[in-house]
Specification:
This protein is α+β, with helices and mostly antiparallel strands. The protein contains four helices and seven strands. It has one domain. It binds zinc ion. Zinc ion binds next to α3.
């Protein structure tokens, strides 16, 4: 099951996959595989997985931190941009999440997928107003409606 969360503190320390919702407030020159492109300001979804200690909680907390050295491709975006939330699937697979987003454009080939033989990139542009798969939209609505009492 896919869930949407805004606060990483609410995430279990379980292994799984996520799609990180990122917003660039200004254009950013990003590189992958020696190719540099300018990413326009706007929203992006980055699919990754967390299998190490601390699982999803630790990984999402790292994505939010600004005091880190760029190690992964996605750090270029998290250092400059804003993390607005994440879609998470405990025990899930990052490539399956990425495949579910195949209707969204790829801004930079190879971004985040250097060790993946299936995907052209693990980063997608999320154009304003573009719909996500219905289970993703439902997860977002569920997270944003007030909790029942
Ligand atoms: Zn992949």
């Amino acid at each position: 099951m896919i869930r949407f969360i805004r606060e990483t503190g609410a995430v279990n320390a379980a292994p799984g996959a996520y799609a990180l919702w990122l917003r660039l407030g200004a254009p950013l020159t990003a590189t992958a595989g020696g190719i540099a492109v300018t990413l326009e300001s706007g929203d992006y979804l980055y699919c990754g997985s967390a299998k190490g200690p601390g699982g999803l909680r630790a990984r999402l907390a790292r994505h939010r931190r600004k005091d880190k050295r760029a190690h992964w491709h996605v750090d270029q975006l998290t250092l400059q941009g804003q993390v607005l939330g994440a879609f998470i699937v405990e025990g899930g697979d990052e490539c399956a999440l990425n495949a579910a987003l195949s209707a969204l454009p790829i801004p930079l080939l190879g971004f985040g997928s250097s060790d993946c033989s299936r995907c052209a990139a693990h980063l997608r542009l999320w154009p304003k107003g573009a719909a996500l798969p219905s289970d993703w939209e439902n997860a977002r609505k569920a997270a944003e409606s007030p909790p029942p009492d």
